[in-house]
Design goal:
alpha/beta, eight-stranded mixed β-sheet, seven-stranded mixed β-sheet, 9 helices, 19 strands
């Protein structure tokens, strides 16, 4: 694969959406992905932490149909099945370490969070299935993009050190702007104001870590608990029932411990502290998991930069000018963070990708 009309950098939800739509429109498109798997921040893993068709979402796991119609529409279009996040039962609240956790009944049901049967990666598989396999290249990290007379030239590096070139008329960067600015060298350079905007846009989830405890059965439900807990003590600050549609029981939580402190404490100590907290909240059965999973996105160089370790803000919707100067009409940004609505979320990826596709098709002579 040496040339294509449109090169898509990043095979997460946004990148695969772009590639699928362009391919359906008859455009010769190629997707290049630095990881050796598809999905980007979407990672559905089994009990051993390996990617699987039916597992636990170590990355994004929810969407909200009423608030995020773009994602709901895609789920329907792909023929995927969804199910509501379990909210049946009481909620636990941990206010102080020296106090016993409080149990209470939620006053009202919040708008239902939906999950995909098989995990969020089901959307990744469905999108990729509509793209010719030979147009998807994994283990190909884009390190440089240069303008040329015919369009653009991308430098791709493999994990074994091999370097390839890919020529295209246009490029879609379907990855977080901050990661793009930190890892890709542009020739000519981006305008300073453009580069600064990319650099200053927080990457959603990049500072975060998730912990999963997988069990033989959802024992908390038998006790009338939803599996939801809030804590001002930690290490887990927000906990939910992560049982799959197929019935694999689990609890998961977001760590409230900062990235640098997580690195200092180490994974094993954090895992033990998380289990001890789950036992305090849900009973001693929590101490007997089949297995545990821990995913620290801040330690993933294909998600987070050094800036993400301390910048945990949510990307804000803003003006649509993400590319300027000589790169206008050649480079398009489609990462979720660039979406004018729901930036950072799955829906944001769909919206940003759809916008990029519309721009490219209106910009391109398809004759």
């Amino acid at each position: 694969m040496k040339a294509c009309r449109v090169a898509v950098v990043g095979a997460g939800l946004a990148g695969l959406y772009v590639a699928r739509a362009l391919h359906a429109s008859g455009v010769d498109v190629a997707v290049v992905e630095a990881r050796n798997r598809l999905g980007g921040r979407i990672l559905t893993a089994n009990e051993s932490g390996k990617p699987t068709d039916d597992g636990f979402d170590l990355g994004p796991s929810w969407y909200w149909p009423q608030m995020q119609p773009a994602m709901d529409t895609l789920v329907g279009e792909l023929g995927l099945h969804s199910f509501p996040q379990n909210g049946e039962g009481d909620v636990m609240f941990e206010r102080m370490s020296r106090e016993k956790p409080q149990r209470y009944m939620p006053a009202m049901q919040e708008q239902s969070s939906m999950r995909l049967s098989g995990g969020t990666a089901a959307a990744v598989r469905a999108l990729a299935g509509d793209i010719p396999a030979d147009r998807i290249l994994v283990d190909a990290k884009v390190t440089a993009i240069a303008l040329s007379d015919a369009g653009t030239e991308l430098t791709l590096e493999r994990s074994d050190g091999q370097v390839d070139l890919l020529r295209s008329e246009q490029v879609v960067a379907a990855l977080p702007p901050r990661l793009l600015e930190a890892t890709v060298t542009f020739s000519p350079e981006q305008d300073p104001a453009t580069a600064a905007r990319w650099r200053d846009t927080p990457t959603w989830m990049a500072p975060h870590a998730k912990f999963f405890a997988i069990y033989d059965e959802p024992f908390w439900r038998a006790a009338g608990l939803s599996g939801t807990a809030q804590s001002m003590v930690g290490p887990l600050m927000e906990i939910h029932d992560a049982t799959t549609a197929s019935g694999k029981a689990a609890l998961f939580g977001f760590l409230g411990v900062g990235a640098d402190q997580r690195a200092t404490l180490g994974e094993e100590m954090l895992k033990q502290a998380c289990l001890a907290q789950l036992a305090k909240l849900f009973g001693s059965d929590a101490l007997k998991p089949q297995s545990v999973l821990f995913k620290d996105w801040a330690a993933d160089p294909l998600t987070a930069t050094v800036a993400d370790r301390v910048s945990g803000g949510h990307p804000m919707p803003g003006r649509s000018l993400w590319v300027s100067g000589a790169w206008k009409g050649r480079l398009w940004l489609a990462g979720s963070e660039t979406s004018p609505a729901e930036p950072g979320y799955l829906a944001g990826a769909v919206i940003a990708a759809g916008r990029a596709v519309a721009n490219i098709l209106s910009n391109m002579d398809l004759k």
